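Journal club prep, shared notes

We agreed each person brings one worked example of a sequence with its structure written out as tokens. Mine is Mandelate racemase/muconate lactonizing enzyme family protein. I'm keeping it raw so we can talk through how to read the token line rather than staring at a rendered picture. Sequence first:
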Amino acid sequence: MRIVEVETLRPAFQPNLCVVRLRTDDGLEALGEAYYSAEAVEVYIHASLVPLLLGSADLSPEKFAAVAHPYVGYQGGGVETRAIGAIDIALWDLMGKRASLPVAELLGGPVRDGVRVYNTCAGPGYVSTTSRQHSSNWGLETAGVYEDLHAFLHRPAELTAELRDEGITGMKVWPFDRFAEESRGNEISGSQLREGLRVIEQIRTVADASEMALMVELHGLWNRPTATRIIRALSDYDPYWVEDPIRADGIDALARLREDVSVPLAIGETAVGIRGFLPLLQSGAASFATVDAQWTGGLSQARRVAALADAFLTPIAPHDCTGPVTFAAVCHLTISQPNAVIQESVRAFLRTWYPEVVEGLPTIADGMLTISSAPGLGISLSPG
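Then the structure, token by token:
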């Protein structure tokens, strides 16, 4: 078996997405994916990685990673790392199809039949046009069905009840981001703090912590003193966690922050590999490790991160607010790792543009996620 074709696909309706399709000489197809700066990732894949793949009969993700490792660009989640991550995921998909086994079996085997999900309250157009984490990239101008971001900002109680009625028992919101943009994360006024807390208060009028795990995302936009102030104000509402209060590479500041607040902190979607996670775990800052299976360099790295976190008795709650192939991949990771506790999902993506890209996605029902027994990642490109 040899790889005879490497194809990249960029859907016009989702400019940040780059899907990779591998084909072998015996007719197998496998999918990978990168998200953010798709054009640059696509160029890097064809210039630097395709020559390593075409004609190759050495299809192990680990062996590929060894030869693809760049001299520069490996310390962060930039183009090189995300391009390698896309190919790595595709090679895991291919390995599963060769073995006629789901990827979860290759990762050690499922340790649970299903896992609880939480809903990240984005809308279908969220972060779809640029790689900026900014309100101008929230996609609210195209708001339509499942516009959960507009809903949490303007009718959070109604949204909470709607999710609860679906059986979803966790939700994530980010009501403070616009204020960080105004001050560059340096301060928040009393009125701004109260405005952000209004969202949280209304959620809690509908569902307490026993009914709805509430995650509050800060996107690493704040300095330490202001993040401390926000988190202390949030503590009265019993959040499940506060996510990325400051940058994930600010290890000393995160350690100090951890000492100053009582709320659990979730950190790691932008951390890369075991070397990126090791200081986070050593510092004790991360209550939950939110590894992204693509941005961290692929499933090969993500499973190492999961094992490393387990050594520190830290649960993983893998990130997913990107594309459908990565979602499928991370679900296999979560189902197979003993320290995984909850899986992020975005119903606005799953019910709008994800099915336009792939079919065979993992299933979510009554707030629980399950994967199929189909080989590989269990997905294929949607017709057309």
